[in-house]
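Action item from last week, closing it out:
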Amino acid sequence: MILVSSCLAGLEVRYNGTHSLNNKIRKLVEENKAITICPELLGGFSTPRDPAEIIGGNGEDVLDGKAKVMDQTGKDVTQLYLNGAYAALEKAKEINATIVVLKENSPSCGSSMIYNGKFIGKKIEGMGVTSALLKRNGFKVISEEQFVETLL
């Protein structure tokens, strides 16, 4: 079973109430080969919500207590991101996920790129909080771009 970001299956759960539909991923969900998850909603956020970025590091640093996740208004939302990451981990274990496909660049789901924490649209190498936790627990986590490449 594959665990996928809800927004990639077309669910309007992103911070701004939109989706990031990937038709190949939606088809997997429709065929019951994949299950959707949104760590941010699981963590207690609603849609829409203020955009957030990791300040002072990456998802691994957040897990280690060395960085925080802040929203654009300056509110510390680290705990909600941690709550969502641990809920996603439980879901991945529950379904025995063979692979996890998460939305790149997200402070939760980015698997190789995230925003730099300055809210200027600049990306840096690094993982989001959920990706980091899943990888630490032995799950293979890739982005939607990497997923499409594996299908080619």
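Closing note: The chain has six helices and eight strands.
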